Amino acid sequence: MSREITIGNRKVGEGHPTFIVAEIGINHNGSVEIAKTLIDVAVKNGVDAIKFQKRTPELCVPPDQRNHMRETPWGYITYLDYRYKLEFGLNEYREIDRYCKQRNVPWFASVWDEPSVDFLQQFNPICYKIPSASLTDKSLLVHARETGLPVILSTGMSTMEQIKGAVKVLGEENLLITHATSTYPCDPEELNLKMIQTLLEEFSCPIGYSGHEVGLIPTVVAVAMGASLIERHITLDRAMWGSDQAASVEPGGIERLVKYVRVTEQALGDGVKRVYESEMSSLRKLRRVQEP
Questions:
Q1: pTM for this model (two decimals)
Q2: Could you tell me the CA-to-CA distances from 222 to 72, 108, 194, 260, 265 in Å, in that order?
Q3: CA distance 65 to 80
Q4: For the chain, what are the domain ranges?
């Protein structure tokens, strides 16, 4: 099986440029205008795709959490009401879809439940992402797979056996698995980037990395370790209200990250030792003993 898939009009996998996803997620805080500004930031810096999150709150919020009260920008409301405030509906996604087409950037979303898959089908997304929280939801895995679109599977807060179980349901064809640790933000000692190699050894599909750390270095290292896709949350300001903001990358950060990833790709080379033309001057000047 080839370790490559097609996402939109791009080949993703070994031998191809890293597919860079800017996740807006819920960092728009319910505002289409903030979402559009973040799309502008992502496009300006050359990302390959933009990602949102789509939930059906009454299905995704556990019953014992629905009536918990919390302070929000919309006042002191229940957790369920808060999830509704954050959720984009049909009109908002129509505008997102229109704007992404105008900016010539593909978008997709993490789907947290089966109705969310059905909802997004009308927009012809380039793929579906199964969030880490839903990795064990076999009905959702089957439903997403039945669309025929590529599936990205995130693996945070999951055991290796649970990952294998999900992959058994999905199959490895047209699948990309992202290593992740679901802590926002995540301490370096819990990033466990060597899992990228473990997943590459275990599965025959492309492996990616969904990072929630503070800073850029681990994500760049993930590319050097074989990640074919990287995904980072983006924000206008890490101090903004919201659970994902602190683990996100600000506009200057996404600009640097894209540059670092592209330089890393160039620097990795192909592993074949050669003497470059640029070295010849140094060779003539500095090598005292020449082989016959």
A1: 0.95
A2: 35, 22, 9, 12, 11
A3: 8
A4: 4-286
